[in-house]
Amino acid sequence: MEQTMEKTEQAVREFIVENFLFGQEDEELGNDTSLLQAGVIDSTGVLELVVYLEEGHGLKVEDEELVPENLDSIKNLARFINSKQGN
Asked: What is the pLDDT of residue 2?
C-alpha cells in the first residue's frame, strides 16, 4: 500500500508541476501543501484536476467529493485516488 501511495503521489506531483507550474519544480511544494492556499491552483485548476482524475486514473468524481479533503494537496489527491481505486 505504501509503495502504491508513493507512486500515486509522484504521478500527481508530475501532473501538477507540468500543468500548473509549467515544468518548474517548486521546492516548497510539499505533499501536504495546500494547492489553493499556495496559489498553485484556482477554481479552474480544480476542474483540470477532476479531468485528470477521471481520464488519467479512470475515476468518476462525484459533486460531493469536490472538497479540499480530497483535492487540496498531493497527499489528499493520492489518498483519494487510491481509495477510489480500492487500494
From this structure: 62
